[in-house]
Amino acid sequence: MEPQKFTNTKSSVEESQSSPSALQELFDTTRTVSTSESHLYNLARQIQHNLEFQHAWGEMIIHDHSPITQNKLPRPLIAGLPPKRLYIHPDEQIELLKHEKGEISSHPEMEWVLPTHVTENWSLQALAEIFDAVETVPPLSSHSLNQNIDKEVGWQWRGPHRQKRLLLATLHDDSTVVYYIVHDGIVKPRQN
C-alpha cells in the first residue's frame, strides 16, 4: 500500500479566517484622517457601516469639525441620508389629516447620527455640547432638498424649519446597534 500524498490546500475554515470581513476591509481601505481619538473614529466607521449595509443609508460623511464654528467636535458625528423619513412631528401628522392628505412625504431628510458605545455614560450637558456644535440639518453632499418643500403640507416641520435632532446610535459589545431619536429640547407629545 502506497502512502497518500497531501497537497498544501487550505480548508474552507482557514480561508474564511484569513479573509477579512467587510467592516475590516472598510477599516483597511479607509485612511484615518480624523483628528478625533482613533477609537471614537473607528466607532463612527462601524456605525456608518451598519447604516449603509443593514439599513440602506446613503451619502454618509463622518464629521469631526463643527459645520458652524469649524472647531473640533467632542467626537465624530455622521451625517447621512436614510432611505425614508425617520421622524414625523406630531403637529405635521395633524396638519396632514386636516388636509385629508394621509400619506406622508416620502422625501427623506439628511440626519445627524451620534455614534456611542453601550458602556458610555451620557449627560444632558454632553448632549447639549453636541447640539450646540451642529446645524439643524447636516450640510448636504450631492443630495438636494425638494425645491417645493415650502409649498407642501407640513413644511414648517421639515428641513431647516424642523427642531434640531439626532439619531443616537448605541453599539453593544456583540455588534448590535440600537437607534434612538433625540431632540434638542422638549417635543410636544402626540395627541391621540
TrEMBL record:
Entry superkingdom: Eukaryota
Disordered, as annotated region: 1-22
Family: Belongs to the SEN15 family.
GO MF, any single term: tRNA-intron lyase activity
GO-annotated biological processes: tRNA-type intron splice site recognition and cleavage
Keywords on record: tRNA processing
One Pfam match: Sen15
GO cellular component, one term: tRNA-intron endonuclease complex
Polar residues compositional bias, start-end: 1-10
UniProt name for this protein: tRNA-splicing endonuclease subunit Sen15 domain-containing protein
